Amino acid sequence: MLLSSAFDRVVETTPCRGAILRIEHVDLTARCRDCESEFVVEQFQFVCPGCASNKVTILRGDELRFLD
């Protein structure tokens, strides 16, 4: 993964040498604004499987968090 490779290169020459990057994969989940159903977005198809609406709101899976 590109992020993992970049992290390893950057930290090796800093006081953070030896730091570990932990990546937790979370399903990209959305809610349809028309019928309110929640679904996992697959293959970047942002279309509700229940009513075929493309009016969706992302609920989770698009975040990037840095924790100490």
N-to-C terminal Cα separation, in Å?
21 Å
* Largest sheet: spatial strand order: 2-1-3
Largest beta-sheet details: 3 strands, antiparallel
What structural category do the secondary elements indicate? alpha+beta
- In total, the number of strands is 3
Percent range of helical residues: 10-25%
**Overall residue-averaged pLDDT value:** 91
Proportion of residues in β-strands: 15-25%
**What's the order of the H and E elements?**
HEEE
Number of helices: 1
CA-based shape: elongated
The low-confidence parts are none
Q: Over the alpha carbons, how many angstroms does the gyration radius reach?
A: 17 Å
Present the secondary structure layout.
Elements: H1 2-11, E1 29-32, E2 38-40, E3 56-60
Antiparallel strand pairs: 1-2, 1-3
